[in-house]
TrEMBL record:
The gene is Ptrh1. The keyword Isomerase does not apply. It comes from Peucedramus taeniatus (Olive warbler). Pfam families: Pept_tRNA_hydro (PF01195). This is PTH hydrolase. GO terms for molecular function: peptidyl-tRNA hydrolase activity; tRNA binding. Keywords: Hydrolase, RNA-binding, tRNA-binding. SUPFAM superfamilies: Peptidyl-tRNA hydrolase-like (SSF53178). The keyword Endoplasmic reticulum does not apply.
Amino acid sequence: VAGLGNYGLRGTRHSVGMEVLDQLARQLAVAEGWRVDKRCCADVALATAHGLELVLLKPRRFMNLNGLSVASAAEVYSLGPADIFLVHDDLDKALGKVAIKLGGSARGHNGVQSCITALQSNEMTRLRIGIGRP
């Protein structure tokens, strides 16, 4: 589960994916387990939920390069594109609205496009978090 955003710019609308991962880590009781994984240039926490082993990932890069971290983590943890769940902001959705998208285009989102390019696939499931337009 990769939370897309601009690392180091907490609290901004475009880093909502990372904020969601922080909340998920708290709910799964692994919030203290974040560690830097230099192999994929990301903060990583391992968790288990409903019998599934999860790799929670917050890339330590700017949004348009998040895919490099996601692709490196996929290699390190032996994951394919269909195993990856992206959490990201969506300007076209009203603030607080969420939607799941099963693969397809990036719809203009630079972080998602970076992941599609780096993984050479658009099969990743996405959780789109509405941030609305200013």
